[in-house]
Amino acid sequence: MDDPASTLPTRDELNAELLAVPEPPEQPETPPPPGFEDSLELALRHIKGRRGGDLIGIVLVGSGARRAVTPHSDIDLIALVKGNADAHEILRVGERLADIRYRGHKAVEEELAYSLRLPPLLRKGRVLYDHDGVAAKLIEKAHHRFRQGPPPASINEQIRMKAECFHWLGKAEDLADKPGTAHYLLMLFYDDCLLAFFRLRGFWLTAPADVHRFMVSREPALADLAGQFLNAPSLSERLNFGRRFADLLFKDVPNPARID
Q1: pTM score, two decimals?
Q2: Please, which domain of life does this record's source organism belong to (predicted)?
Q3: Helix and strand numbers, DSSP H then E, in the chain
Q4: Under 8 Å CB-to-CB from 149, ≥6 apart: which residues?
Q5: Do the Cβ atoms of 98 and 90 come closer than 8 Å?
């Protein structure tokens, strides 16, 4: 009688039967929810009517520019004007809020050299109105500045960020008998830690919705502690994960100098 094992196919024979798995097709951009473009057009008309005389450019930023609009996304616009301006208004446009910032175009250009927020924000901007190509040139400069990377954090800034984060954590531990207050202080602690993560590691700030995914791609162990901190079922566990998160985040940063 033949050995049953001899009738089984070999690994090579099995592999020969396997078909190549095709790469998943590239997904098309998510279309904006119905009404977004109509609301955007109304916001543009408002800006042009208000600042038509000195208006130089209008740039859509945020989720609208990234083609990541959800039903609750705001319409985030930067209106570039001649001269100096630093105004801000929020309007209801259709079913959405329009967040409009009026800025002098020369001030924005100068701010690109040192701002931690403008280069990543503007490099993905969508120019909706442009006079003499000023807005397009700003977008190009934002791309160039982004490629250079953010300015490094000095040792004094690193120590200051560490001290502030551990201050909030310590206050939350002191007020553990008042859970509502402690949880509030822990969210202040976490927000400061996130800013410190980007500064210490030399990364540009990302959109809030992308922070955790970005951290996972760069430092999985730190991201895992952040997730456990956010999902901790009790205050004591959240305090524990918060301290472990901060210890790992600031492990290479010295403590403030001590005087006695």
Answers
A1: 0.77
A2: Bacteria
A3: 10, 5
A4: 202, 204
A5: yes
What gap in Å lies between CA 76 and CA 90, rounded to an integer? 10
Name the token pair of 239. 């305090």
Residue holding tokens 């690109």?
A: 112
CA-based torsion, 226, 230, 231, 236: positive or negative: positive
What CA–CA distance (Å, rounded) separates 106 from 179?
A: 48
Residue 187 has φ and ψ, to the nearest 5°, of: -70, -35
Per-residue pLDDT of the chain (260 residues; tens, 9 = 90+): 555 555 565 655 555 554 444 544 554 555 555 678 889 999 999 999 988 789 999 999 998 888 888 888 899 999 999 988 889 999 998 888 999 999 999 999 999 999 999 999 999 999 999 998 999 999 999 999 999 999 999 999 999 999 999 999 999 999 999 999 999 999 999 999 999 999 999 999 998 888 999 999 999 999 999 999 999 999 999 999 999 999 999 999 999 988 87
Q: Which residues, 6+ apart, have CB-to-CB distance to 96 below 8 Å?
A: 35, 36, 39, 73, 74, 75
Phi/psi for 146 (5° steps) reads: -65, -40
Q: How far apart are CA 63 and CA 96, in angstroms?
A: 13
